[in-house]
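Researcher: Here's the sequence for the chain we discussed earlier.
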Amino acid sequence: MSTQKKRNFQIEAFKHRVVVDPKYAEKTWKILEHAIHEIYNHNASGLSFEELYSAPKRNFQIGPLKRQIVMDPNYADKTWKILEEGIHEIYNCNISGLSFEELYRNAYNMVLHKFGEKLYSGLVTTMTHHLEVISKSIEAAQGGLFLEELNRKWADHNKALQMIRDILMYMDRTFIPSTHKTPVHELGLNLWRDNIIHSAKIQTRLQDTLLDLVLRERTGEVINRGLMRNVIKMLMDLGSSVYQDDFEKHFLEVSADFYRAESQQFIECCDCGEYLKKAERRLNEEMERVSHYLDAKSEAKITSVVEKEMVESHMQRLVHMENSGLINMLVDDKYEDLGRMYSLFRRVPNGLFIIRDVMTSHIRSTGKQLVTDPERLKDPVDFVQRLLDEKDKNDKIINLAFNNDKTFQNALNSSFEYFINLNSRSPEFISLFVDDKLRKGLKGVSEEDVEIVLDKVMMLFRYLQEKDVFEKYYKQHLAKRLLSGKTVSDDAERSLIVKLKTECGYQFTSKLEGMFTDMKTSEDTMQGFYASSFAETGDGPTLAVQVLTTGSWPTQPSATCNLPAEILGVCEKFRGYYLGTHTGRRLSWQTNMGTADLKATFGRGQKHELNVSTHQMCALMLFNNADRLSYKEIEQATEIPASDLKRCLQSMACVKGKNILRKEPMSKDIAEDDAFFVNDKFSSKFYKVKIGTVVAQRESEPENQETRQRVEEDRKPQIEAAIVRIMKSRRVLDHNNIVAEVTKQLQSRFLPSPVLIKKRIESLIEREFLERDKVDRKLYRYLA
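Model: Thanks. This is the structure I predict for it:
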């Protein structure tokens, strides 16, 4: 290289010298100096700044060349030989004797003197020759050395390519863009692709070797991931089409076959939980494989293959698998397996829909069985508690396993609404559950826990379609709690009313709030009574009265009951006081709702204070004048309704520890031919003994029918009011739209049947609120 011959040419001297005025500088400076003085003397108005800027230019001339450049006609061939030899040395890793600066200058000169085409074509030929030699070397490598040789030669080629690109940089920047040829680096990659990767003896072998290594890794063998990463990166560097056509496409096909066979094997020998674990592990392995040595864009494709073959193809069988499918997981609270199923199924089309559909069917089936089981209906409190337990169980599953998915929560709510309303007594039972909790079930419970229970009750309440039926029962139960003073906490009572008010509006709770107002007013009334002259009763009984507003409290049938003479006198005094202080009012005694404290003396002089209901008091007072009374005699003397009287006598004669009466014959139930007498042997370790009435936990069928009829009667004016409101604003409306809008307006309280709505429309037509259109009989008009 040091003896290379340089290109011979000569440049002749200029024919004429440059002629310059010898006083040019002095003359020019005189002009500029004068101007500076004028500027300092503030006399710049006469100056031409443009003239000063372009002061007299220097005059010179350049004559033409005497002779042209003389160029060596073999210059291009000689220079290319030098560059070709340099490229050979680079590929042979023998660069210590090369002068890259000299090589760059030679390449530069070739391009400058229009020999770029010769340089470019020579480069292609030389690189192709070397790659053909490299190809034979790679083909000769046996077994595991094949990839290693390929990787090593690829690294050498990249280094050589970098050096060649540096030498030919000027060609890369000028000649190649102007002639639209492939840049040097890209050319080197393309030649490697065509001569090495797409070589007949290498292409298939490389593909098979890579796929075999992936298979071996899948079956548990440890492979050289670093080598795999380098080879795969080589394919990616050669272009996405090379990676996809020469590897990825076949990789995905082979993977699909592998997982199709493996999933079939697993599904036959594993239960659902085990299968899902294996599928999840395979999915994670593929994602890890991508992160280690595949193109990141392959992740979505290979995971899609695993999902299709291992999950989507077997979804129905997995969900319905006997003894281990979805329903078994739900029943056994297998949160981990359910979570795994959710995370896998959400990856495939309709996966979550299948889980949700099966889960919904299961919940509806379980719930329907729960609300229609005659045994469960015997205990309303247990019935509601089981509903709450079922809701808690499914809420926990959705929260822990299904990522709190709103669609699953909606499906759960829909299922509960479906089966709770299958039982027409659900509103009554939920009210009884509240009654039980607010009477005794929440004693000693923290405020936070009370709120949790009330929130759960409200959750069930929202599912009810007949909220007005719940209101009817709740009002009855609340009245009994308030009048008997058995409520655990006024705060808890008011908290529930606030929740109901928030849910259903002021109209729903106005009467409930009125009941609390009456209780407070009654306290003030009694203070006034005992401060008045009416209260002078001597040794007579003491009276405590709650005055209830008829509209606010549940309507109670005014059962006739003959009060003892002593009590009757005090009651008349209170009536006189109350009607004297309030004009235009009327009092009617509700003896079925009161209580009394009696002092009693039993055999051996044992004295106790008995807390009994008003009806029980009436019955017990009869025994002051008789030792033995038959059921018929008690009934005639007190005129207490039979159902109430039987409960009173049952609680006083049949409850162990509270049996202040005895009856013949002895049995658990009261018959009309029974006889009663005082139990002289009655004893208790307490001085005060509370004799509770045997509470009817749930209404009998006739009572239930009666309540239903009252509810139906209450609904009629509500439906009519809704119809009138709608027609007043719309003026003219067809039948189907009226039914739809009335249902929409009233669904927060109850779901009116179309038949009932039609009857109310007919009633309004009869009373001339509406009229039918004379042409279209299904069209109604509002009459102002």
